[in-house]
Amino acid sequence: MTSPAKFKKDKEIIAEYDTQVKEIRAQLTEQMKCLDQQCELRVQLLQDLQDFFRKKAEIEMDYSRNLEKLAERFLAKTCSTKDQQFKKDQNVLSPVNCWNLLLNQVKRESRDHTTLSDIYLNNIIPRFVQVSEDSGRLFKKSKEVGQQLQDDLMKVLNELYSVMKTYHMYNADSISAQSKLKEAEKQEEKQIGKSVKQEDRQTPRSPDSTANVRIEEKHVRRSSVKKIEKMKEKRQAKYTENKLKAIKARNEYLLALEATNASVFKYYIHDLSDLIDQCCDLGYHASLNRALRTFLSAELNLEQSKHEGLDAIENAVENLDATSDKQRLMEMYNNVFCPPMKFEFQPHMGDMASQLCAQQPVQSELLQRCQQLQSRLSTLKIENEEVKKTMEATLQTIQDIVTVEDFDVSDCFQYSNSMESVKSTVSETFMSKPSIAKRRANQQETEQFYFTVRECYGF
């Protein structure tokens, strides 16, 4: 004989649900901490880059001044009176010509290093400052979006808890009503059997007295049977009512369960990835790429012989990839970003029906609800497609702003044949104040519109 199946009690089911929700809540908290940590590391990295290039600019300027002093010393010597004969012969003497070219090259190197220092101070460092400001601003907005997404997810989980509790309550009422109905049926059977036995045991009496007694006993039995039948009818109606409520509650629970699992999947698989891609990392890698390419352009134009040392840096710049960084981050913190287990249907007190019940009288209600949901989904699909097109166009505009190829500073190293000092243009088209104000105003206005759309539509 098989042992009866053991069913989980309400407390056990709720305890398991609470445990799973607590684990998800802990994950959400750790996700925000992880993103905070990445933001702090970025700020520190950008600050280190600024300090590095500021110190390097000082070194380049000191080197330029020393080269200029060296060149002026020997140029002054060649211009002295005792060197006049030496100067007359310089057109025919190749060593003198080489000497003059060498001094001119020193002057050129001095100007190049002044230009390099100027580029570091007035081009590259401001770029890092801008990247740092943009990253902080975007992370703040991204954190707000992420927090809203997490709040929405927790709201869905809380709604599932409420629906599950309602299902448990109505199912318990249905079981209780069924038990009372069976008890009434037993009482009816018992009363009917008792009446039959009493009629069989009746002893003969005088005709008049026997008739009176039988009439009286029949009246009593009929009264008892009617009371039991009336009680049975009430309990039958109560059971039918509670059973219907239980079926509806179970259907609501199953629908909410499916919606919750879909929401959890969407958050972990799509929302988190989009949050890092389109919010936290928006323009960061591209801007850092541009700043470092400016450095590369300056160094490569200063001295082509430095290719061997610069190749390693260029290779690192070429490998700046937001997608790869995101994947690495998520792999490093796999326990934080991995999706949780799906919520499973928890049958209550032997209720093993794990699919929607479409029997009467809930069939018409389900069909009506299905039609309403299909209509709503069609409307949302059209709205989402329009919003998606708008967001894609806005995102492309932002990408165009932050990926403009303005890192070539080769013009800064073009000189005339004269020996006069040449002032660096320092990427005037990018770093001039009107250009900066216009670019940043357009960028921030576009960003504000982009985040407003995300917040309004929950993308």
UniProtKB/TrEMBL annotation:
Span of domain F-BAR: 22-325
By its UniProt entry, which Pfam families does this protein fall under?
FCH
Coiled-coil positions are 363-397
The cross-references to InterPro entries, in alphabetical order and at most eight, read:
AH/BAR_dom_sf (IPR027267), F_BAR_dom (IPR031160), FCH_dom (IPR001060), SLIT-ROBO_RhoGAP (IPR051627)
Q: Which UniProt keywords apply?
A: Coiled coil
Point to the regions of Basic and acidic residues compositional bias.
181-203
Map out region (Disordered) in residue numbers. 181-212
The name under which this protein is listed is SLIT-ROBO Rho GTPase activating protein 2B
